[in-house]
Amino acid sequence: MDTIVLSHALYKPGMDALKGNVEVVIPDNGDSDEILEQLKQVDGFILRIGKIDRKAIEACPKLRVITRPGVGVDNVDVQAATEHGIPVVVCPAVNFHAVAEHTLTLMLALSKNLLESAEETRKGNFAIRNKYAAFEFAGKTLTLLGFGKIGREVARLCCALEMKICVYDPYVKREDIEGLSYDYESDLMRAIGQGDFVSLHMPSTPQTRGMIGTEQLAAFKSSAFFINCARGDVVDEDALIDALESHVIAGAGLDVLKDEPMRADNPLFKMDNVIITPHMAAQTRETTERTVLAAVEGTLAVLRGEKWESVCNPEVYQHARWQRA
Fold it and tell me: Does pLDDT of 325 surpass 60?
């Protein structure tokens, strides 16, 4: 029977699907530097939180599949995996609605001053209602930086609340955006400057890492809020901290940070104009069940020698290892 390392336990339906099909090792650690000896002994690696780099991949000739229960692969050296004939299984198109809902939830919480109001009410400060910090969505502009499945779903939900939508995405045609009655903006800075909310929906790539920095944050309206349910390293976190502390922007709703698990001493946690959640946007019961079952199914299929379609490196099947399959 094949053996896999599972960085952290999956939601119960995923664990049930693994039972009886593979032996499972769960170190509660996904850092390939720290669990390398275990990785050397196994056939597969399902990585929830952590990373696997070239050094680990080259040290694990037995490894036949790496799986990410999601779509992000910035913590996997995909090129090294491909060079060694290892498919990197992903689970696309299952989390877009959950992440869009979470994005909207952060926006609503910020717009209604929800956290401060709830906390002050618990203290007996009923007069917090007279701060008049809450505002309505109707007529406000949402700028979307990225217009994939998640960005499109956020736009659809926010249109129902009578928001105006501005889209920046260099990979989407103007006519496709305008055909949906949204505004298209080809210039990043101008797009940012229009938003009462600016919501990031771009993957972490060499081109996007650090793309939101001091210059971009200075283009925000001082009354605008920044939302990030994408990837933490797309943002220069020090620049964001400075912008929030100096009130260059009004606040932020963040589901991701540069370092995860998130450190409690991060200055962002001390700010009352910031809401932070623990990278949980896609962690609804429904989406998580679909995701873990897809992850398990793909992992087992590759271990059986099947060319699973949902991989981020389909060219891997040209590798000599697969020509013998």
Answer: no
